[in-house]
Design goal:
Layout lengths: L1 E4 L5 H18 L24 E8 L2 E9 L12 E9 L8 H15 L4 E7 L3 H9 L3 E9 L5 E10 L1
Parallel strand pairs: 4-5
Antiparallel strand pairs: 1-2, 2-3, 3-4, 5-7, 6-7
Length: 166
């Protein structure tokens, strides 16, 4: 297995994992992720490589088995903490979860962030997503707050915000 930067050749594999991720969200009762690029309403792959983010993919024999997308926003509302990055999404193929792939992806992304002088990493997790909350605790993240908001489809969603110093 190898990790490399997302390329156009990875679009189909990443889209397959996005759809799997969305199916898992719906099955868990959290609801549809509402990613417009799944339905083709926008060029979704552009969001994986825009100027504020990078995506790493883990592949074996050119098959995408997992990926992580990290955003480094130009505007940092937490300017006192230094340079901030945010994990947008990490997805590992269902049958390969709990085998260290997510940790490998995150640790590689974190090493990249260190070279970019990032001081803190932020992320959010849906309150009911216990496997993700446990994973991020193991990666050294601490809960800083939680919030509830109304989504565009009328559902209420509770989110936990977590942070880690790099």
């Amino acid at each position: 297995m190898k990790i490399e930067a997302f390329s156009k050749a990875d679009e189909e594999g990443v889209l397959r994992l996005y759809k799997e991720f969305n199916e898992d969200r719906i099955a868990s009762g959290v609801g549809d992720a509402q990613y417009k690029y799944i339905e083709g309403e926008m060029p979704w792959s552009r969001t994986l490589t825009d100027e504020d983010c990078f995506t790493l993919v883990l592949k074996e024999k050119n098959i995408v088995l997992g990926f992580i997308t990290v955003r480094i926003p130009q505007f940092n509302p937490f300017h006192k903490v230094g340079k901030l990055a945010e994990v947008d999404l990490i997805v590992v193929e269902r049958k390969l979860r709990r085998k260290g792939i997510g940790s490998f992806l995150f640790n590689t992304a974190q090493a990249n962030l260190k070279t970019l002088s990032v001081t803190h990493i932020l992320l959010n997790v849906k309150v009911g997503n216990l496997p993700a909350l446990n994973f991020w605790h193991r990666m050294g993240f601490k809960k800083v707050s939680d919030t509830e908001y109304n989504r565009s489809d009328g559902m209420k969603e509770k989110t936990v915000y977590m942070v880690k110093k790099v």
